[in-house]
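Local shape tokens:
==================
===
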Amino acid sequence: MNDGCPEYRVTDRLSRRSLLKVGTAGFAGLSLPTILRAAESQGHVPRAKHVIFLHQFGGPSHIDTFDMKPDAPDGIRGEFKPIASHQPGIMLTEHLPRFAKTIGKFAQVRSVHHRMKNHNSATYYSLTGHTPPLDDIRLRDTQELYPAYGSTVAKLKPVDDPAIPTFMSFPHILRDGSVTPGQTASFLGKPFDPFFVGQDPAAPDFRLPELSLPSSLPLARLDDRRNLLRIIDTQSELLEWSGTARGIDAFYNRALTMLASPKVKQAFDLSNEPDKLRDAYGRTTYGQSCLLARRLIETGVRFVTVYYSNTIGGRGKGGWDTHGDNFNQLKDGLLPITDQTVPTLIDDLQSRGLLDETLIVWMGEFGRSPKISNTAKFGANGRDHWPQCYTVLFAGGGITPGAIYGSSDRIGAYPASDPVSPDDIAATMFWALGIDPATEVYDTLRRPLPIAAGKPISQIFS
């Protein structure tokens, strides 16, 4: 096969409609290998060259956004009214009016589910596509756990230009008590860690710091690690950025990247963008982070992860974890920021001819409970953690615009059709990039481990 995928994935891509078109008479003269060859001739040609992974930490309420249940009983349907979108038959919350105009450019998967009810374990699952060993807030990063998606991509499909990072992430480190695992390269090794940026892209002085060289030391002589580190040690601004480095070698490589790639440094200078476009994205941490993601993709970075956790202005200080005051947190902060930023990102990529080659994935670690909760701990009108069913959005990268895969039941509690796991989401991202999800990597004990245990959701791709 041209794409290197196993035969069972080929049969998955032979759609029910295609099989029906063959007809009973047609099958009489077709052997299984012939059917497989027919499927292969219709096979998926990967169009995605980049991924922008937008992770919504805390768990967005699917029932108050993209999978509303206006006919559900009181105490479930919530306070928001659905509005019509530009895609016939698709309704969104009234607080996503711009998204309603853009939703036809997305594919929706409405039947994602798993069993992890704590942030650290559920987020690890959503950042790696692998089931955590336990569902516990105390789950911590270890070399036994799987790497972030971008680290796997950096290992298996690095960018051709060694001066450009394959994987970058910003602007938060996710944590619920302890740091959430799944944000680094884990057993793949420090060279595949993300180039992590912990500064706020919305800050007026945001930029990639310079590494100044003595006039007596040309770039070509920086093959002496100790000499380079001595220079770094004298530059306080660069040292501040080095706080997130995962070891000397990791930071050494990043320092060389900064030196060797003026394109990367220029990408960090958001002042080069017109004020009108920066305003369109929103002068929030999330808005300017998504603008930075587009600039990095344009530069050639393969995989960019943007974490929506804390916000600037309005409500939603803890991200999407709306146990209490769910509706006010959504309408006063989380949804307006999302409605401004994400459609602008999609339109901006499309206007630059980058959307078809860039897969955008918008998801959290779970959804929120259909039943509205009122507790002494969190207060009234909240929704709790709900991994049993939630929605994930895809755009660009060869998806079928407007596709909907899977469905939830009448109150948004459980999948009603075509259940999907985070393992399948992971397989879909790798498959869209042309990486076989069955590819194996080796852990610290040299055990071969598949990068994804699920199957690609090929039905949402053209």
